[in-house]
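> tool_call: predict_assembly(chains=two)
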Amino acid sequence: SAVISQKPSRDICQRGTSLTIQCQVDSQVTMMFWYRQQPGQSLTLIATANQGSEATYESGFVIDKFPISRPNLTFSTLTVSNMSPEDSSIYLCSVESTDYEQYFGPGTRLTVT
Amino acid sequence: GEDVEQSLFLSVREGDSSVINCTYTDSSSTYLYWYKQEPGAGLQLLTYIFSNMDMKQDQRLTVLLNKKDKHLSLRIADTQTGDSAIYFCAERESSASKIIFGSGTRLSIRP
């Protein structure tokens, strides 16, 4: 299994500002992902964070709104830009191990006022 | 597109078995997963099954896969109060590492 940490665990932000969320894994992994879980909802994939190249975004998510960095095989960041109250969600980082198990971080609970 | 469906709620008596059901649409799914989410917590990978298997058992958990009907179930034997959580079914697309999640089933335990 993989141990994943995220920072911050929660934050309250004002609309129009940006927040960068960090994800750290305790081992090198090829695949890292960012998900969003809106209140009372299921998880939606935002993008796949690719090491050494641009992230691959899912339909409905764009790089200008959710820029992602992946500088190495153990770390990634997700920025939520120009926030509005609709961005209030839990943001989760996940990784895939070599045997197709996908593990999730504890999540970052974001509230936009 | 791919879709994963689950019923939203399940209530069982403590000590009974819980059976959470899930249907999916992608016939080429390779792996199917069950995750548990307790209030205010992240997702815990409970178990998963490869698509060429019919059943997988792990202590109190039994996963059954009917590939023909695209139906997946999770059985929890001797359900305890600590099993109260939301259970998500998910499938891995055959062409990518992308996982599609169901809406989650909220399991509540009554005494």
